[in-house]
């Protein structure tokens, strides 16, 4: 989060716009809901400024006030987020297509949104038997390759807080359900540069996932297929390709964000 002291010059209108976005990001950082005092602690903004801006954001529908007097992200942000996700997927499609052409398996792009992994783009395998994780599907991160790849890039305390909010339900007998063992598993993923989903979300499915870096939201790309076809040996062989394509996609997204 950028502190108010770092936002720099500009007129009052520009400063108000900056601070309004700091409030929205502050709400996102606290899990989507916070009290005014929590927002003050998160953003460093003066309480009178928070009162003034939050009233305007509530009137516009970008923030809502709950019965417990906490504030939460509003429904009008959903449309903006959906359109941003679609654009994100458009940037990724050529790289996902390259992954499919190289590996022969289905390629996906997913982002971390409100403690869930959301699939925002996919290029299907050319095989008649292929994986169908539809665009728009939301899954808890601990049970997916893309989720584990993303969480491997976060500080352990942030991961622990997320797991406390979501729990760790077992989707299959292979799903990780112990927080501390999972944290250790994420450290191994960070070291090797990719995550494996070994039938942890769906029996009979193996997935290789690579975290993206320098993106506006935590994200990962993956290659998934039947474990009989995407064997451990093949997964290990194609992992460097997935890492390399993921790195190029990260660079492309960063350039798009800069307007390059």
UniProtKB/TrEMBL annotation:
**Cited SUPFAM superfamilies:** GAF domain-like, Winged helix' DNA-binding domain
Keyword DNA-binding included in the entry's annotation: yes
Q: Which InterPro entries does UniProt cross-reference here?
A: GAF-like_dom_sf (IPR029016), HTH_MetabolicPath_Reg (IPR050707), Tscrpt_reg_IclR_C (IPR014757), Tscrpt_reg_IclR_N (IPR005471), WH-like_DNA-bd_sf (IPR036388), WH_DNA-bd_sf (IPR036390)
**Taxonomically, what lineage is the organism?**
Bacteria, Bacillati, Actinomycetota, Actinomycetes, Pseudonocardiales
Keywords for the protein's UniProt record, in alphabetical order: DNA-binding, Transcription, Transcription regulation
Official protein name in the record:
IclR family transcriptional regulator
Which parts of the sequence belong to the IclR-ED domain?
76-255
Query: Which parts of the sequence belong to the HTH iclR-type domain?
Result: 14-75
Instruction: Record the organism.
Output: Haloechinothrix salitolerans
Among PANTHER family, the record links this protein to:
HELIX-TURN-HELIX TRANSCRIPTIONAL REGULATOR, ICLR FAMILY, HTH-TYPE TRANSCRIPTIONAL REPRESSOR ALLR
Family annotation (PROSITE patterns) = HTH_ICLR (PS51077), ICLR_ED (PS51078)
């Amino acid at each position: 989060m950028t502190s108010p002291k770092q936002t720099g010059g500009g007129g009052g209108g520009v400063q108000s716009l900056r601070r309004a976005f700091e409030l929205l990001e502050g709400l996102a950082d606290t899990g989507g809901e916070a009290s005014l005092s929590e927002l003050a602690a998160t953003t460093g903004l003066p309480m009178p400024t928070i009162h003034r801006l939050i009233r305007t954001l509530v009137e516009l529908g970008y923030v809502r006030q709950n019965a417990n007097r906490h504030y939460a992200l509003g429904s009008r942000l959903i449309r903006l987020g959906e359109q941003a996700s679609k654009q994100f997927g458009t940037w990724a499609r050529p790289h996902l297509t390259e992954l499919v052409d190289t590996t022969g398996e289905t390629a996906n792009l997913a982002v971390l949104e409100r403690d869930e992994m959301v699939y925002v783009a996919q290029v299907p395998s050319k095989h008649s038997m292929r994986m169908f994780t539809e665009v728009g599907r939301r899954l808890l991160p601990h049970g997916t390759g893309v989720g584990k790849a993303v969480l491997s890039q976060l500080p352990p305390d942030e991961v622990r807080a997320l797991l406390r909010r979501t729990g760790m339900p077992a989707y299959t007998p292979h799903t990780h359900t112990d927080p501390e063992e999972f944290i250790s598993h994420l450290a191994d993923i960070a070291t090797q540069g990719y995550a494996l989903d070994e039938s942890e979300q769906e029996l009979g499915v193996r997935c290789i996932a690579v975290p993206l870096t320098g993106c506006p939201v935590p994200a990962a790309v993956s290659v998934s297929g039947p474990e009989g076809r995407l064997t451990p040996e093949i997964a290990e062989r194609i992992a460097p390709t997935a890492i390399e394509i993921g790195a190029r996609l990260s660079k492309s997204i960063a350039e798009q964000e800069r307007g390059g």
